[in-house]
Amino acid sequence: MADETLTLTLDTGNGEGGDVVIKLRPDLAPGHVERIVELAKEGFYDGVVFHRVIPGFMAQGGDPTGTGMGGSKKSDLKAEFSAEPHVRGVCSMARASNPDSANSQFFICFDDATFLDRQYTVWGEVVEGMEHVDALPKGEPPRSPGKIAKATVG
Asked: Rounded to two decimals, what is the model's pTM?
């Protein structure tokens, strides 16, 4: 896949926003990477908030409703679990209790969360701009959530 990175331009609402560059991992999760790229190119993620930001754990976004209950109109994805560890900067898909229920929501790990290994699909890794993820307003949901101003592939 020629599109090796996803750039999320974050608006943290507190003046600390900026670009987060994520190295895509089609070697681990080709179907999930394809979905993320497709949604980003369609503008799906533009303006979507991080509705669940838990210090020391992760920041979750990708739900157009901002509630944690929504997704894209595309069909859910088949799980692509791997042994890749959930550590700081890893990007993984959120899902319901059904392993094959990932759709558009994803999370970025703030810290080691290896208890998620082999249960959630890792699709990328932050290589630049993790400080902008760290600056996202915290909460479930945050009072004034940070958002993805723009998602760009390439």
From this structure: 0.96
